[in-house]
Amino acid sequence: MVLGIHRFYLGYTWQGVVQLLTAGGCGVWALIDLIRIITGDLGPKNGKYSDTL
Predict the structure, then answer these.
(1) Taking the C-alpha atoms of 43, 47, 51 and 53 in order, what is their torsion angle to the nearest 10 degrees?
(2) Residue 42 and residue 10 in contact, taking contact as beta carbons nearer than 8 Å
(3) Cα separation of 3 and 6, whole Å?
(4) Mean pLDDT, the chain, integer
(5) By three-state DSSP, how is residue 48 classified?
(6) What was the pLDDT predicted at 2?
(7) Residue 47 pLDDT greater than 80, yes or no
(8) Per-residue model confidence (pLDDT) at position 18
(9) Which of 1, 43, 48, 51 is most open to solvent, judged by the fewest CB atoms within 10 Å of its CB?
(10) Helices and strands in the chain: count of H runs, count of E runs
């Protein structure tokens, strides 16, 4: 979660690059993502998970 690799998987390429370059915003992005995961707000860019790779 700290490096932003999950953002690439979810389709948020730009946010993934920013997280990689800022080392996760020194933990700020990780905290935001944790809150979004707990509330169920963090999901794929297209709105649904795919069952194929």
Answers:
(1) -80
(2) yes
(3) 8
(4) 79
(5) coil
(6) 61
(7) no
(8) 86
(9) 51
(10) 3, 0
Cα dist from 4 to 35, 43, whole Å: 15, 14
Cα of first residue to Cα of last residue in the chain, in angstroms, is 21
Most confidently modeled range among 3-7, 29-33, 43-47: 29-33
Look up residue 12 and give its amino acid: Y
- Which candidate, 32, 4, 8, places its Cα nearest to that of 19? 4
Q: Which amino acid is at 38?
A: I
Place of tokens 């370059």: 21
Token pair of 47 as six digits? 């709105």
Tokens of 24: 């996760």
Report how far residue 43's alpha carbon sits from residue 28's, in angstroms, rounded to the nearest whole number: 19
Q: What number is the average pLDDT over the span 22-36?
A: 82
* Average pLDDT of span 8-33: 83
